[in-house]
Amino acid sequence: MTNQPQHLSGAFVATTLTHFQQRAPLVHCMTNDVVQAFTANVLLALNASPAMVIDTEEAAIFSPLADALLINVGTLTRDRIPAMRAAIAAARAANVPWTLDPVAVGTLPLRTGFCRELLDQQPAAIRGNASEILVLAGIDAQGRGVDSLHHSHLAITAAKQLASRSGAIVAVTGETDYVTDGERLIAVSGGDLLLTRVVGTGCALSAMVAAFCALSGDRLMLVATACQLMARAGEQAAASGAGGPGSFQQALLDALWQQGAEVQP
Ligand SMILES: Nc1ncnc2c1ncn2[C@@H]1O[C@H](COP(=O)(O)OP(=O)(O)O)[C@@H](O)[C@H]1O
Ligand SMILES: Cc1ncsc1CCOP(=O)(O)O
Ligand SMILES: [Mg+2]
């Protein structure tokens, strides 16, 4: 086990993005009510295809047809659980990778119990902020609603434990993102504070993580690539003169689009 985090090369990110845009993954998103349109727009900006299918019967039909599945518990209700379970079961039976975003896991019993249950369902990836990853790893830590109260570097050990236990690639995000398979560790720095002032950047990043899991290759590197692209787009959006969250959100979509401008259809 290496203690020093690795970094992705720019060349790897560029090549992976080209493959991604050629593949144009169809992503089945079962996500929260706050971030639906933003998540879809983020995926579209990268040339992926989002589809928000939430009925239990339809979700079980659709997840095997998709290239990836996202489960985000941000506005979980009791009624939505059977549909998510059905989508995951059907995805697994069809070898479609699924990704968990455990929004605000911790104090709230419904989502906390459900997320813990899902750890046994072989997620391909888990993406959360530091408080969420600490909680999922079984550490007594709480966030503040959907926001983290912890720095990401304090959750590296927890992320590794969670990855080893679940088999998932775990991305714990924050000022620096850390991505691990339980042994290897990649650090992704950069981004911009404005990423935390627009709702849904974490959720949309989880959708990107899900989508990148549709590619073949080293999944640790693929998940880190998703994090790197969001960080880079955040930097470029801020540098483009965005005066605050409103213009930043628009600039972020444009910057994601421009990451792979040369291969856009
Ligand atoms: N202090 C920060 N500086 C720069 N980027 C950040 C900072 N905090 C979070 N980010 C970025 O914001 C995005 C969302 O991450 P995060 O805020 O951790 O998730 P969530 O919205 O689920 O709490 C990620 O791309 C992450 O790298
Ligand atoms: C505000 C809010 N409340 C329930 S889900 C949600 C969105 C959280 O988005 P993110 O985790 O990307 O900040
Ligand atoms: Mg979140």
Automatic annotation (TrEMBL):
Top enzyme category: transferase
Pfam families linked to this entry: HK
Highest taxon, organism lineage: Bacteria
Catalytic reactions of this protein: 5-(2-hydroxyethyl)-4-methylthiazole + ATP = 4-methyl-5-(2-phosphooxyethyl)-thiazole + ADP + H(+)
Keywords for the protein's UniProt record, in alphabetical order: ATP-binding, Kinase, Magnesium, Metal-binding, Nucleotide-binding, Thiamine biosynthesis, Transferase
Pathway the protein acts in: Cofactor biosynthesis; thiamine diphosphate biosynthesis; 4-methyl-5-(2-phosphoethyl)-thiazole from 5-(2-hydroxyethyl)-4-methylthiazole: step 1/1
One annotated GO molecular function: magnesium ion binding
Role, per record: Catalyzes the phosphorylation of the hydroxyl group of 4-methyl-5-beta-hydroxyethylthiazole (THZ).
Family: Belongs to the Thz kinase family.
HAMAP family: Thz_kinase (MF_00228)
Name recorded for this polypeptide: Hydroxyethylthiazole kinase
Species of origin: Duffyella gerundensis
Gene: thiM
